[in-house]
Amino acid sequence: MRDAVFCFPGSQGILQGNNAKAGSKPLAGKELTMNFGSNLRKLRKEKNLTQEALAECLNVSAQTVSKWENGASMPDISLLPLLADYFQVSADSLLMHDAAQRLQDVRNLGKEIRALAEAGKKAEAYTRLKASMNQWKLSVSVNHLMSWTARQYALECTGADRTRLLEEAISWADRTIFLDCGETGRTVQAKMSKCYCLMELDRRQEARDIAESLPSLYSSREIVLSRITSGDEQQQFIQSALQDLDELKDSLQALK
């Protein structure tokens, strides 16, 4: 079994049928089972995932994923919103999933955690978010937020606690990268976060290797937008880009 930070808890209670958890709600109809299996196979292939890769993320066997796709069994219904969130499909595609509400829940959670951290309550932010991660296993945004929160808390700690939290932040960053598949800016942000954690652990070469794979400054959003906009909007983006450069200049001055 993989590190619990990276994978789901064990598969007990996930499957319906002989392995079903007592009291779990059965799904109605063979047609529903077959539709789910076909949808899952289609979505998995669209993400270029093998059954083994999806199984690793869910901490189940590849044979279990194969049974789902073939209609031989179904996952517990509580897993379906997580799968829908991961594959970014409509509510109708994977049963009883309100995508709009779940997106709003993610935003609200992010605001709450960042407000706690900015108020100096980083330990509380970490504990609060960690306790809720069971329902956000496949959310790219929340996994990234967990990495950020663990690092923020680590910076307040010393010794073994600091090391443990930085390593945990790296694990959450790795999970973010794995789930995102390079499809959004979260991959770049997670790599940046991982770089900073590695530096704080004095693993400089690892940090540099990752940093060298990141986009250049001139391909950044601020630089590109400052060149394709005009008027007040262009001025705003230029000022944003200059602010980043000023921070670099301050760092350079500190070295002298």
Notes on the protein architecture:
The protein has 256 residues and is mainly alpha-helical. It has three domains: 17-97, 434 Repressor (Amino-terminal Domain), CATH 1.10.260.40; 100-214, Serine Threonine Protein Phosphatase 5, Tetratricopeptide repeat (Alpha Horseshoe), CATH 1.25.40; 219-255. Helix content is 65%, strand content 0%. The protein has helices at 30-46, 51-58, 62-70, 80-87, 99-118, 122-132, 140-154, 159-180, 186-200, 204-211, 221-228, 231-255. Helix 8 (159-180) packs antiparallel against helix 9 (186-200) and helix 9 (186-200) packs antiparallel against helix 10 (204-211). Mean pLDDT is 80; it is low at 1-32. This is Helix-turn-helix transcriptional regulator.
CATH homologous superfamily placement of the largest domain: Tetratricopeptide repeat domain
Number of helices: 12
Question: What separation lies between the terminal Cα atoms?
Answer: 49 Å
Q: How many domains make up the 3D coordinates?
A: 3
Count the E strands: 0
Which topology of the largest domain does CATH recognise?
A: Serine Threonine Protein Phosphatase 5, Tetratricopeptide repeat
Strand count, sense and barrel status of the largest sheet are:
none
Gyration radius (Cα, Å) is 21 Å
Structural class: mainly alpha
Morphology: globular
SSE sequence, one letter per element: HHHHHHHHHHHH
CATH class of the largest domain: Mainly Alpha
Second rung of CATH, namely the architecture of the largest domain: Alpha Horseshoe
State mean pLDDT (0 to 100 scale): 80
Percent helix range: 55-70%
Strand content: under 5%
